[in-house]
Amino acid sequence: MLTQPLLDKLNQLGLVGFRAALEDQLVSPHYADLSFEERLGLLVDIEVTRRDNTRLNHRIRAAKFPLLATMEDLDLSPRRGLKRAQVLQLAQSEWVGSHLNLLVLGATGAGKSFLACALGRAACQAGYKVRYERTSRFLQALELAHADGSYPQLLRSLARIPLLIFDDWLRDPLSRPQATDLLEVLDDRYGRSATMVVTQVPVADWHSRIPDPTLSDAILDRLVHNAYRLHLEGESMRKVHSPLLSDAG
Fold first, then answer.
1. How many other C-beta atoms can be found within 10 angstroms of the C-beta atom of residue 119?
2. Which of 13, 62, 67, 69 is the S-S candidate for 118 at Cβ 3.0 to 4.6 Å?
3. Distance from chain centroid for Cα 115
4. Neighbours of 238 (CB within 10 A)
5. Considering the domain boundaries, does residue 161 fall inside one?
6. Which tens digits make up the pLDDT trace of 83-103?
7. What digits encode the pLDDT tens for the residues 24-38?
8. Distance, CA of 3 to CA of 22 (rounded, Å)
9. CATH number at residue 76
């Protein structure tokens, strides 16, 4: 008699997993021999798992990763130039909690973005909020924020993100205003949050792509000196996985 009102109240409380598990217990004979505490514990565990998964999915969607990449999908063979132990350690995301940086370097098509998305997803799984940005579009967003007056608010929101990923970093040389904006973003984050930079441009060439030497030194100081580095090597993954090659074979 009390079952339906109870189920309705569980819905009102947002205990969706708890309700579904309770309904399963009510019709399944497998739970008959369990104590009340054991059955209640199972219900609570299921609800906690559901909520954890919901929060994880929300973090992954909010990050806006362009690729569906997981650590299990990574090619960590020696030909990629990666040290398996180092990559797996970075996947634990302790560097994010320690407010350090990560540089993912390598030629075009080497798989940098895929690796960045896999590590970013691992950070989401570790409980961190992540934001993935194409650098050129990010700079456009900063310019628009200046125009509509939302720039200070945007800076504050960026400073609160535990891991910010810049892909295609310095693919195009920066203007002085762009360099100034990036320095402001990085200055707010330095020592307070983590930044990942994904680029085909060697670090030694960054100075030549930033117009003001003072700005260049400041940007590199906030990114490079407290950063891990991963350098991908080998043939372009786009070429390796091209359907044209398999057809030709």
1. 26
2. 69
3. 10
4. 11
5. yes
6. 999 999 999 999 999 999 999
7. 887 888 887 888 888
8. 10
9. 3.40.50.300
7 and 101 co-located in one domain: no
Please indicate, yes or no, whether residues 51 and 81 belong to a single structural domain of this protein. no
Note the pLDDT of residue 248. Answer: 46
CB 93 within 8 A of CB 126: yes
* Residue keyed to tokens 């792509």: 209
Query: What is the three-state SS of the chain?
Result: CCHHHHHHHHHHCCCHHHHHHHHHHHHCHHHCCCCHHHHHHHHHHHHHHHHHHHHHHHHHHHHCCCCCCCHHHCCCCHHHCCCHHHHHHHCCCHHHHCCCEEEEEECCCCCHHHHHHHHHHHHHHCCCCEEEEEHHHHHHHHHHHHHHCCHHHHHHHHHCCCEEEEECCCCCCCCHHHHHHHHHHHHHHCCCCEEEEEECCCHHHCHHHCCCHHHHHHHHHHHCCCEEEEEECCCCHHHHCCHHHHHHC
Rounded mean pLDDT, 187-209: 96
Residue 106, both tokens: 């390598």
Note the pLDDT tens digit of each residue in 50-94. 888 899 999 999 999 999 999 999 998 888 889 999 999 999 999
